[in-house]
TrEMBL record:
Gene: cobG
The UniProt record lists the keyword Oxidoreductase: yes
Nitrite/Sulfite reductase ferredoxin-like domain residues: 32-89, 264-318
Provenance organism: Blastococcus carthaginiensis
Lineage: Bacteria, Bacillati, Actinomycetota, Actinomycetes, Geodermatophilales
InterPro entries: Cbl_synth_CobG-like (IPR012798), NIR_SIR_4Fe-4S (IPR051329), NiRdtase/SiRdtase_haem-b_fer (IPR005117), Nit/Sulf_reduc_fer-like_dom_sf (IPR036136), NO2/SO3_Rdtase_4Fe4S_sf (IPR045854)
Gene3D superfamilies in UniProt: Sulfite Reductase Hemoprotein, domain 1, Sulfite Reductase Hemoprotein,Domain 2
Key words, A-Z: 4Fe-4S, Heme, Iron, Iron-sulfur, Metal-binding, Oxidoreductase
Protein's name in the database: Precorrin-3B synthase
Length: 403
């Protein structure tokens, strides 16, 4: 391990202020609450609780985030307490102290269609282990863990710590989106990921305690891997294997699959994978989803999967409700930040403008994958090559695709 090296971004001079369900953020349109949904998995009863909360406490809609979480906007002052009670009763807030740390992505359709193994038990076990460890309440709200069943979707999404199935019997630990060289079997993989999470906090403390992401630490990947390999923090339950640098795997830079439309499941049933235009689900759409399936999965590309259906006949209902199942639809290529009126920084109502451009077929850059933003911050920008459409106060500036 090299002993020194610059961090990949400047040191932070403040703690992150990521909103949570209890720690709400004051936006121009009221309080904003973010509810963590590990693995994007929501039961029907939880969908109904969220739909009711959106109507009775918020602006009637739910926003999907790029981490498969959800946001309620337009909450009245003081509503956070009641929201917290409702979420806790529905099993959506298992720990007040750890709520903002529970950013866990799992492969979409894992255990249902494709993949080398079922990553859902990893998500549940990691979440339980995280919430059970008081020290992990100190994780920054920007921390992200990914659990990829080998299909190469969420491993590409810039996780701080991740598991990537290489085969049904071998799992790689990824750190800051790259192979750490550490391996475990599926049964020991969660212990390895939790050990790496504790090692991140330990290394962060040594380096001043201000980093939000593992990639911000000097030699973060190597130092955290060395801490785990040296068992200075946490000890996975089974022997670890460390592979030489030349044998490490390439982690995909972009998700290898983003299902849209009807997907045959391994058990013969059907899943419907829909895009949610600009990531906003109405309460009526939430209720429809709850009527159709016992569980749905939110995706990191602001979509929703309705699994375990007898056939694809529910597609018509989803489309009628405003969801998109056509992989050629322009909605599959457009994202937007909150913009006006939700964000006081915004120079435009970017969501209305993006919607109008989709409806009349006038998306810029030939309809390429694009993100509309109300200011230079570009909140919610997806990873990978994306055209930026940035409000300037006198129209929009179109920036060339950047990764
Ligand atoms: S990109 Fe700017 S305008 Fe859009 S939500 Fe972020 S801060 Fe607000």
């Amino acid at each position: 391990m090299s002993s020194a090296g610059p961090p990949t971004s400047p040191p932070r001079d403040r703690a992150d202020a990521c909103p949570g369900a209890l720690q709400t953020h004051s936006a121009a349109d009221g309080e904003l609450a973010r509810v963590r949904v590990p693995g994007g998995l929501l039961r029907a009863d939880q969908l109904r609780v969220l739909a009711a909360a959106a109507i009775e406490l918020g602006n009637g809609a739910l926003e999907l985030t790029s981490r498969g979480n959800v946001q309620l906007r337009g909450l009245r002052p003081g509503a956070a307490g009641e929201l917290g009670d409702r979420l806790a009763a529905a099993g959506l807030l298992p720990s007040d102290s750890h709520e903002t740390a529970r950013n866990l992505l799992g492969s979409v359709l894992s255990g249902r269609a494709g993949g080398r193994l079922d990553a859902r038990p990893w998500v549940r076990a990691f979440d339980a282990g995280l919430c059970a460890d008081p020290s992990l309440a100190a994780l920054p709200g920007r921390f992200l863990a990914t659990f990829d069943d080998g299909r190469g979707d969420v491993a590409a999404l810039d996780g701080d710590v991740g598991l990537l199935a290489l085969s049904p019997g071998s799992v790689a630990l990824t750190l800051a989106g790259a192979d750490s060289g550490l391996r475990a079997g599926p049964a020991g993989a969660v212990a390895l990921a939790l050990a790496a999470t504790r090692a991140f906090l330990a290394e962060r403390a040594v380096q001043g305690g201000s980093a939000w992401r593992l990639a911000e630490l000097a030699d973060g990947r190597a130092r955290v891997a060395a801490r785990v390999a040296g068992a200075r923090v946490g000890v996975p339950a089974e022997p670890r294997v460390e592979v030489p640098a030349g044998a490490r795997v390439e982690v995909p830079a972009e998700p290898q699959v983003r299902p849209i439309g009807a997907v045959p499941q391994d058990d013969g049933r059907t899943a419907l994978a829909a895009v949610v235009p600009l990531g906003r689900l109405t309460a009526a759409q939430l209720t429809l989803l709850a009527d159709l399936a016992a569980e749905v999965q939110l995706t990191p590309w602001r979509g929703v999967v309705v699994p375990d259906l007898a056939d694809g006949s529910a597609a018509a209902l989803l489309v009628e409700a405003g969801l998109v199942l056509d992989p050629d639809s322009p909605w599959t290529r457009v994202t937007a930040c909150a913009g006006l009126p939700g964000c006081a920084r915004s120079l435009a109502d970017v969501r209305a403008d993006a919607t109008a451009a989709v409806m009349v077929g006038s998306l810029p850059a030939g309809g390429a994958r694009q993100h509309w933003a109300g200011c230079e911050r570009r909140c919610g920008r997806p990873g990978g090559a994306v055209v930026d459409v940035v409000a300037t106060g006198s129209g929009y500036r179109i920036d060339a695709p950047t990764a």
